[in-house]
Structure formats: C-alpha cells, structure tokens
UniProtKB/TrEMBL annotation:
The lineage of its organism: Bacteria, Pseudomonadati, Pseudomonadota, Alphaproteobacteria, Hyphomicrobiales. Belongs to the short-chain dehydrogenases/reductases (SDR) family. It comes from the Bacteria. InterPro entries: KR_dom, NAD(P)-bd_dom_sf, Sc_DH/Rdtase_CS, SDR_fam. This is NAD(P)-dependent dehydrogenase (Short-subunit alcohol dehydrogenase family). GO terms for molecular function: oxidoreductase activity, acting on the CH-OH group of donors, NAD or NADP as acceptor; quinone binding. The keyword Cell membrane does not apply. It comes from Neorhizobium alkalisoli.
Length: 245
C-alpha cells in the first residue's frame, strides 16, 4: 500500500517542473491528485500513475486567480467531499536591482508568490480534516540575499513566515503545515539561465550538483505523509548543503 493511499491532493502549480514531479510522486503513492496549470488539457481524463496506484488529473486554472483556484476546490468538494493534502507550488522570480524595481514587478511577484498562496490556503482549509497536511514550496532564497532577487527573496520569506503562523493556527484542527525549500534545481526555468550562472550556482553546492525535481518531490512526500505526523511549522531545505554547511 502506498504512503498516500486513497488520499486526495491538490497541487497548485503542478503542470511542470517541481510541481509535476510532486504530482507524479503522490500518484505513485496512491493519491488522487488534482494538479493545476494554465495550460492544462481538461479534455483528458485522469491519468493513472505508472504503477497504477493513484491518478493525476490536470485542471486548467491560473494560480494567480482566486476565482480559478476556488473552482478547483469546488471540483474536489463535488467529487470527494474532502481534501487531505494541499501543495502550494506556484511562483515566479525576475531579476531587478534596487533602484530599478517597478511597482508592477513588485505586485506581480508578491501577487503570485504570496497573495495567491494565502487565499488558496484559506479556501482549502474548509475541505480539510484532522490528519490533513499543507506543504508550501518555498526557497532557500528566504535566508540568503542574491543580488537582483530581493523581491523574490522577500516573498519566500513571507511563505516561511506563513508556515509558522498557520501551523500554530491549524494545529487545533489537526492540520500540519510545513515548507520545502529547494536550492538550485534542474528545471526548465534553470535551463533558461546562462551556463555561467549554472556553473556559479553549482560551485556553491557541497554535493556538487543541482537538485533533481524528483528529489524535491521526495521531501514534499515526506511532509505530506503520516511519516511526518509530529512535524509542523518546519522548513526542510533540499539544497545539497548550500545553506546548511
């Protein structure tokens, strides 16, 4: 039996990269997964995982739209009447040094990374029962100060702060809240950067390479499963030691 057998999970931002890896891993452990993406093909039926345990249903929704996200939870309510696991993965970053930061850039990054995450969690908790788990996808940027990414770093620090407060607020309901904070990860977003940037980042990682999306998914699985039943308010860094040693 899988570690998430018969669980119902929603992944906001589950169409590619880390989010898609988490969706596949959760389904492989027996969950019925709803993974949102702006490009999802909703004409497709739920796809069974490779080992046939669970399934992934791609749902078209803009993570930055509160009405879109609310409709996802309405769909889950109609189909299952409950939600066991919520993963909030949608986010963005954009380079801009202090002195060049526009109001539009600030609003765009905080709107997706912070505002949408807050209201998605708020909509979800009415569906969650004791034993539920919320996993926020943060970043090690919450504790470092990379030049040109001050807005992104501040938004991820807000995510870390939310986890502490929500863990405290939701503990009486039996709902746990934790954060997975990846370091540099081998995704399409990282592939779009220059060779120089990737080499620089890799050189800062004690294990000598970037993370794979499936390695971040393994951390999310631990925090979503009963194996972490006495863990809440915590941050699990998946960074090859980059911020830890």
């Amino acid at each position: 039996m899988g570690r998430l057998q018969d669980k119902v999970a929603v992944i906001i931002g589950g169409g590619s990269g880390i989010g898609a890896a988490i969706a596949d891993r959760f389904a492989g452990e027996g969950a019925s997964v709803y993974a949102t993406s702006r490009k999802a093909d909703e004409t497709a039926s739920a796809e069974k995982s490779e080992n046939g345990k669970g399934s992934v249903l791609q749902v078209r929704a803009d993570a930055g739209s509160t009405s879109d996200v609310k409709q996802v939870f309405d769909k889950v309510r109609d189909a299952h009447g409950r939600l066991d696991i919520l993963v909030l993965n949608a986010g963005m970053s954009e380079f801009s040094m202090l002195g060049d930061i526009s109001e539009d850039l600030y609003d765009k990054i905080f709107g997706l990374n912070v505002r949408s995450l807050l209201f998605a969690a708020q909509d979800a908790i009415s569906l969650m029962q004791p034993g539920g788990a919320i996993v926020l996808i943060g970043s090690i940027a919450d504790v470092v100060g990379p030049k040109g990414y001050g807005i992104y770093s501040a938004s991820k620090a807000a995510v870390r702060s939310f986890a502490r407060t929500w863990a405290n607020e939701l503990a009486p309901k039996g709902i746990r809240v934790n954060v997975v904070s990846p370091g540099p990860t081998d995704t399409a977003m990282m592939a779009a950067t220059t060779d120089e940037v990737r080499e620089l980042l890799t050189g800062m990682i004690p294990l000598g390479r970037m993370a794979r999306p499936d390695e971040v998914a393994s951390a999310a699985l631990f925090l979503a499963s009963d194996e972490s039943s006495f863990t809440t308010g915590a941050e699990l860094c998946v960074d090859g030691g980059m911020t830890q040693v």
